[in-house]
Amino acid sequence: MTLEEKILGHSWAAALGKVFDTPPMKELKEFLKAEIRSGHTIYPTTSQVFRAFQLTPLDQVHIVFVGQDPYHGPKQAEGLCFSVSPGIPLPPSLRNIYQELQSDLHTPPPESGSLVRWAEQGCFMINTRLTVRAGMPLSHNHIGWEYFISEVFQALDRKQKPVLFVLLGSHAQKLKSILKNPIHEYLMAPHPSPLSAYRGFLGCKLFSKMNAFLSKHHYKTIEWAKEYSI
């Protein structure tokens, strides 16, 4: 088993090749080691950095949900964008996502903030950066994650079945330039953070539009309000 297969799973490893052997990824690894040696806490934990890939194999991806970088508070980040570990209070962005879910589909949102259940149903929950220094948002910009995410999006673009890319906010929407395959579709809206949610995220009918895409392409419906069981 290759390193990529061990960390990312078979279908992602087959698409990305020896990505961890590339110079940008080797430099990224050394940077993260230096952060830890300097006494900095990194989120999420090492075992959860690539969790989105482990929970949603490439061949099962129907929707790509893109966030910015992991939560930088204690016990929050769990390797999926917008998601927090069970029992952790909902961050503002996730509260707004749940508010849109309730308003759009007229269903009570889950009590847990963990979005593992979405990932297991074909929703690839990925951030544009996969690590962050504790207490310092965007602290791991320009250290190599841009290269890795570009490779990931090129692999997604090569899929021969339609994928819906949910690009919320300017950071996520910049990734659209990577995507060239005309079979894929896009849903763009402001970021759900309190700073921008009222500029068009709330009321954008995010979930009914995702459901319409799934139905159109005969994919299995995602149970958005399903509770996560530990």
How would you briefly describe this protein structure?
The chain has 230 residues and is α/β, with parallel strands linked by helices. The chain has helices spanning 3-8, 10-16, 23-37, 51-55, 92-105, 116-119, 145-157, 170-173, 206-216, and strands at residues 42-43, 63-67, 123-127, 132-133, 164-168, 185-189.
Describe this structure in words.
The protein is α/β, with parallel strands linked by helices and 230 residues long. The chain has one domain (3-216): 3-Layer(aba) Sandwich (Uracil-DNA Glycosylase, subunit E), CATH 3.40.470. It has 9 helices and 6 strands. The protein has helices at residues 3-8, 10-16, 23-37, 51-55, 92-105, 116-119, 145-157, 170-173, 206-216, and strands spanning 42-43, 63-67, 123-127, 132-133, 164-168, 185-189. It has a 4-stranded parallel β-sheet with strand order 3-2-5-6. A two-stranded antiparallel ribbon has the order 1-4. Helix 8 links the parallel strand 5 and strand 6. The two termini are 29 Å apart. The mean pLDDT is 94.
Topology record:
Blueprint: H1 3-8, H2 10-16, H3 23-37, E1 42-43, H4 51-55, E2 63-67, H5 92-105, H6 116-119, E3 123-127, E4 132-133, H7 145-157, E5 164-168, H8 170-173, E6 185-189, H9 206-216
Parallel strand pairs: 2-3, 2-5, 5-6
Antiparallel strand pairs: 1-4
